[in-house]
Amino acid sequence: MLDQDYAGELKKWGLKPREWQGLIGIGTMHFLHKDLEHIANNTWAFLVLSGYLFYFYRSIAFKAFPLMLLLAGILLWIGGRDGNHIGASLAIYSMASFLFFSGIFRGSIPLMAVSSLVVFSYGSMFWGIFPIQPEMSWEGHLSGGISGLIVAFVFRKLGPQRKRYQWEIDEEMVEEADATPQSDPSPPPHGLRGPYSRPQASYNVRVVYEFTPEENKNSAPGEEGGK
C-alpha cells in the first residue's frame, strides 16, 4: 500500500523511491502496514507461501528468498511512484511468482502441482500488478512478480529437479553414441600395424605359358615335323 497518512516515526522506515534514505525500506517495509486488516491479509498469505517455498525448495530457499526481496526492492526503488511504500506484498508476490515459474521451468510433476495450487489459491493476485486501485502499490506487486520470475530462472538447475526415467537415459546414451566419430575402417598402410590390425599375407604368383606349333601336333613320334 502507498502510505498516505501513516503517522509516527515508523514512517521513515518505508521505501521511498529514488531517495537515498528510502533504500533502507528494502529491508524494513515488509514489517509496516496501514491497519489491522492489511496486516491480517498479508500475514496469512505470507505464512502459506513461505511454507510452500521452504518445504518444496528447502535446499535453495535460504538463498532464493533474500535475493528475491533484494531484487524486488531495488526494482521498486527505481520505478515506483513517489511516496512511502510499505507492506509485505512485495515479498508475497515474489514468492508466488517464484513458486509458479519454478514448477514450469523444472517440468517436475509435483512442483507443477504446487504451481497450480498457487494459481488456484492466489490467482486473483494477478490483477494487483495493474494500476487499478490508486492507493495500492501496484509497482511493488509488479516488482515482486518480476523478481520471482528472474530468481526462478536463475535457480532452475538447483534444488529439486524433474525425475528422469530410464528410457530417457537410454535415448541420451544412444544419441551420444551416434554423435561419437567412428574410426576409419580402411586398412592401415603397408608396414603399419595397429594394436587390432590383422597381418596381411602377400602372395607371389608365377604364370607360365607354353606354345606348341600346329605342325608339331600332327607329327608322329620320332618324326621331325615334316613329310
How does this model look, in words?
With 227 residues, this protein is mainly α. It has a domain at 9-154: Rhomboid-like fold. It contains eight helices and no strands. It has helices spanning 25-28, 36-56, 61-79, 89-106, 109-122, 138-154, 166-179, 214-218. Helix 3 packs across helix 4, helix 3 (61-79) packs across helix 6 (138-154) and helix 4 (89-106) runs antiparallel to helix 5 (109-122). The longest helix has 21 residues, at 36-56. The protein is elongated.
Task: Write the topology of this structure.
Blueprint: H1 25-28, H2 36-56, H3 61-79, H4 89-106, H5 109-122, H6 138-154, H7 166-179, H8 214-218
Helix pairs in contact: 2-4, 3-4, 3-6, 4-5, 4-6
How do the helices and strands follow one another from N- to C-terminus? HHHHHHHH
Beta content comes to under 5%
Distance between the termini: 139 Å
User: What's the total count of β strands?
Assistant: 0
Radius of gyration, Cα only, in angstroms?
41 Å
Specify the number of helices.
8
Write out the CATH superfamily name of the domain at 9-154.
Answer: Rhomboid-like
Per the CATH scheme, the topology name of the domain at 9-154 is Rhomboid-like fold
Q: What is the CATH first-level class name of the domain at 9-154?
A: Mainly Alpha
How helix-rich are the residues, as a percent range? Answer: 40-55%
Tags for this entry?
227 residues; Rhomboid-like fold; 49% helix; mainly alpha; 8 helices
